[in-house]
Amino acid sequence: MSDNIAAYHSKQCPFDVIVITSPDEKSALAVRELIISSCGQFPSNYLEENASTSVLESKDGTLYISTSDPYGVRMGSGGGTIAALAEADHEFLKRNCTKLPTVLICHAGGESSRSPTQIALGKAWTSLPVVFRHERDELTGASFSTRVSNPTSLLIDSLSVLFENVPKGSVIVAASDVLLSFGGEENRLNFDDIEKNGDNINNRVIGISVPAPLETAKNHGVFVVESGCSSNERLEKWEMRPTHRVLQKPSRKEMLEIVEPPCTFQHSNGTTESENEVSAEHLAWIDTGVITFLPGAAATLRELSRSSLKLCTWQGIKQMHEDSRSFMDQSKSSRAKRRSEALSLVQFAKLHAPKICLYSDILHSLRTTAGNRELPVHDDVMSTIQKALSELELVTCVIPSGSFIHLGTSGELLDFLSLGTSGINRNEGQDATSNVEAFGRSIFLTRRALACLTSNESNVIQSSVVLNTCVRSNNSNIAIGCDSLIEHSMVQQDNGLSIAFEVGDRCLVSGLRPNIKGSSLRVPSGICLQVLPLTSSGLHATSANRAFACLCFGVDDEIKAVPPKTVFGVDFKRFLQLAGLEDSDLWDDVDKRMIWNAKIIPVFHEDDEMKLDLSFLEWIHFLVDNSKAAEGETASMYYKSMPEFQQWKNSPRLSISELRDHVNPEAEVLHRKSIMCNGVQCNKPLLAVTERRNEPCNLDYILDFVSNTFSTKNILLWEFSEVRSFLCELERVIWRSAEERCFDIVGRGFMTMSLLLSDINDSLNKPISTDIDLDTSVNHHDYAVLASLSGPFWRRSKSELLSIKDGKIGPYALSFNRSDILGCCAFLEKAASFMVGRCVRGNDLQVQISASAKPITPDTTVVASAPSRIDLSGGWTDTPPISFEHGGRVACLAVTVDERRPLQARCCLTRSKGILLRTESRALMDGELVSSSEVRIERLQDMKDYNDPLGECSLLKCALIYLGLTTAHDISAYPSHCIQPYLNNFCQREKLESDVGLEIVSVSLLPTGSGMGGSSILGGCIVAAIARCIGVTLNKDNLVHAVLMLEQMLTTGGGWQDQIGGLFGGLKLGTSDADIVLKTNILQYNLTSEVRDELSRRLALVFTGKPRLAKGILQNVLRRWARRNSDIVRTVHELVCGASEAVDSLMKGDLNRLGSCMSSYWEHKKIMAGLESGVEPDFVKSLLTLLYSRGDVVGGTLCGAGGGGFLVLLLAEGKTMEEIKLRVDEEGVDEYSSLSWHSCAIDEVGLTVELTEQ
């Protein structure tokens, strides 16, 4: 791909004056905004200071003139060229310039009759989304952005390269309603080399030509050149060739029959028809519409503008009109005098200005090798033109690598955008599959530019193109079909309501305004819909409110077919039949009846609430969907009775031909500009973060942009301002919130950035979102940087943490390297977890714990034991940050398992030195030792793996740090320090001469990954035992918070429900408010003995034989919560409500209702984790299905996070665990054979701490 992506405005323009013509004066006035925004170097407020001028001066001194044919006279492309040249010379010389200017004249084309959606401004201003290079943004570091370009802007860019050293005083004329590519800077025309070869080029006229298929060439001009490029003569670059003749819209047969010299040549397309034969396509040298009059030839044109063609210029018409009036005043004929006085300037121009075609009149008058053609001479003016131009030689510059695209119809525009962007996701270096795709690549056509689509549900087909459009439908859906174009539209409601926006396949939708009336807008497949503003003085201005024309027709309707074949894509006769219309309903008394002059365009006014009613589209939708199926008079009656049809029929209606006289192009341009300025920017996704809203950030527009924008090795996605600007804005939010100590916002900011980068990478077909493991992806250096987030001076490390401008996140680069993205995401998620930790412990940077009693003696052991817990409903709402961002509520029970309290910690002082840590896992049935690990701590470095959840005795190490033995900083800074001084101080022995030792043993009878809160409850037991041993008094509320801190240190990031469930006896409802400082409240309930006994009889625990690590599922839940998708926010709310309902069921003794709560709870858990997380193993699903189908249970859920561990069942009344187990075993399913069944009973005591003698 070329490096010169729409960046030529930054170079010195070779043209002194660029004249851009429009069909009429009001269009010329309107397109000044487009010239300023896309064609030159202008300040954004240029027109505010130059409101009335048609001459715009760019920063580089180039004059841009927006004009039209003088006095509204349509004088042809030749007459328009003369008028534009005279105006260019006049304006240039007015500025005290002594030399004639080099002029580029861009003609906008005709009335856009075959492409009605361009009728307001002309096909020259067709909107095209392209990638644009600009100077590196100092704030964001971005070097690229997307923009809405147009054929005129692209043409000026291309011609600025092609004619970089064109001789001064030349005049270049071009048609800007086509798309041209000349192959890049290697095809820059070198006029110096031509003159060195001895050619006198001063009086030449050069036609620029590129190869085109005969099917395209037959609709345009064709150059027949000498020494034609045949299949045996391959050109590598541009070349000047003598012109033999010029053909105007020749037939395919005519071109093939011209052989001396040949008109056509062949180009191999590589398609093998047989082993020895390669097919070749016939091509011709098409006239691109770019005609260059070198200085001598340009002088001839200038002379004609001052003499024979004076009546083609503004000044000439005015002068001749005044001269004619003066002549008539001197005339003796009073009749002639009265006639002169009555003839206005405009009337005079229309009567006397000649109509001249640049191509059939001027071009055909030039000298060719075939000799001058004998053209019909209508009058003395044409005779003078032919005589003056016949001395000028016409040569053809053939550019073999160039290409030509003509967007003649709305369908051709859609096809171009679809095919031209079809290579976006193709691997770099892979050849284009079509000429259109190659052309799209050459201009860096893309599918999204200034596009923002945000909704609850989105189904936007990737091949659709969206530009300068903002659709916000937060509570409704957006659907855009295949190969459709949405442009210059703002779809939203000011009152906060949402509108469903559905567009079918191959549609063109343009100009939609905000506040459309109703709750939905549906455009059927194959329909063009454009809303256009009308002038207030128009024919149908029957209201004080603004009027709009709703231009609606079928994409493939033949606008000028006589008689019409289709309308709205429906057979025309069938349309008349179903609608009950006569020809007189659509046409006045005209001879040629066609869509062009049929009154099918309804005119609507905004209502008093400034809403626009487009409900007539429902009738067209029904018509398109059912026209073939509907039959008979009944169908016709149904159509005619539809209120949407009556709205269309009874509204004032215009024809397309009339529309041009009533449309307000200036209002349309201002509408488009308002979207560019406020559309995408008005979508403020970060408000969800900064205002702590439980709603999504709506970053779909960035992901949509990523999926639909060209990106190569030389153009990294991160260099695009659309991506970089958001990341930089998010970075600023993070640092500003950090300064304000709003650590919850900082954490959500880090998490949002991580998810965005992960989604960006996933959209590029490199999924990583399920691969991120924070422990393996973040190395020790990263931890050192991230650790600064926990201390008081972490702001000093800002540049090490984030520097989006420099393309860095931590130590990782913003690149397409998978390992870099993986590192960025893990780094950011870990940063978010540090911020959650700060919120969990409050704003105090260190936990202050002081001894309030004497430590125990070395001959005493502290034993802390506790039951396990089962969660009945509300789980996940206790997990930070959900618990303090939304607020949490969990119902849980403390239970024994097989009549045992399965969790215990022992702690004692010893007379030996150092610390001995030991963990034991024992069998539930008999207490036999299954596994153990032991760690002796003598130096601080022996505790360095305290935050590794898989490290040996890591939970015990975290408890020691929490209670104040040492700090994470000291462990990192002084690893070789002996532990003994720390230990003596910890145990209040610093004043004694003898050292002390400490022994801590934790014991669990629950298998690893039980889901019954084992690690958290055990953590509470460990802290309670150590605290009592060293003389620190902690109540159960302190312990709940202590375990939260342990899990933050351990990076498992759990919630508060486990420790509440096991440390407090019986039934509890734990709650936490939505507050950035996490505070828990515990409500304990006393069940009646009858309810307690029945519940204990009907509860059963089934160990699945599959342990699970909550952390993996936890990470997935927190990522889903960070997105705040509506299903997750709704589920969290339902979990909170479910907890209260579960408690209420038990207090009323309604166990069957409790079973329903437990079943709903399990469904909510699966939504929170996502089925892809493995939260529900297949055999668990089949087991639950079996038990429910037999009526064995009324409720059940996997304990804790799910994925394995214990399954808690609430048996149906009258059922026993033994008989259910027997029936399950009889199924003969392999996975069922590994299940173990256990009894469960309510424990009313909770945590106990006792002293025993050694």
TrEMBL record:
Keywords: ATP-binding, Kinase, Nucleotide-binding, Transferase
Database matches in InterPro entries: GDP_fucose_pyrophosphorylase (IPR012887), GHMP_Kinase-Related (IPR052203), GHMP_kinase_C_dom (IPR013750), GHMP_kinase_C_sf (IPR036554), GHMP_kinase_N_dom (IPR006204), Ribosomal_Su5_D2-typ_SF (IPR020568)
GO biological process: GDP-L-fucose biosynthetic process
Pfam families: Fucose_pyrophosphorylase (PF07959), GHMP_kinases_C (PF08544), GHMP_kinases_N (PF00288)
GO MF entry, a single one: kinase activity
Domain (GHMP kinase N-terminal): residue spans on this chain: 991-1066
Domain GHMP kinase C-terminal, chain residue ranges per copy: 1143-1228
Residues annotated as signal peptide: none
Domain GDP-fucose pyrophosphorylase as annotated: residue spans: 102-605
Similarity-based family: Belongs to the GHMP kinase family.
Protein name: Fucokinase
